[in-house]
Write a structure and sequence with these properties.
single chain, two-stranded antiparallel ribbon, alpha/beta, about 180 residues, 4 helices, eight-stranded mixed beta sheet
Length: about 180
Amino acid sequence: MEKRKTPIYIVVACDSRKGIGKKGKLPWHFPKELKYFQKVTTKTRSATKLNMVIMGRRTWESIPEKHRPLPGRRNVIMTRDEKFKADHATVVHSYNDALAQADEFIETIFIIGGGKVFEQAMKDGRTKGAYVTHIQSSFDCDTFLSKIPMKFKRKKLGADSEKDTKFEYFLYEKK
């Protein structure tokens, strides 16, 4: 019997220079974009399933404590720190171990950060695509998004603005 393949997508927002973080945190705060992120990573076609979010330890720590774990999703944290613990989340020590947490109750896996985890997902042939919010401003970031592989076709999903900053939502999927 062949093992079921759970779709894997990256979800990320980046600035005009492909910046995704600064000093371990998001360098912007756009409630509309956060709401979009929540909708993408929470919504399922089946009422009996959940989605799973995979993130690195620093991404986990950058989420305000009152919002951890991200509700309505199975939270998986990757870290090399063997002693690291996280309440109400699964801690693993490799990318493949993180993916292995998806059982028959998981509809979609979303890779949500940080930079090194995105890099692994971009190189993984199992990754079906990326939901990318392009923010039309620069935020002096110190962490950047890897180049999106050419095999992904870009489709615009919408646009919005907040605090005099425009952003566009795209889905990049394998051709």
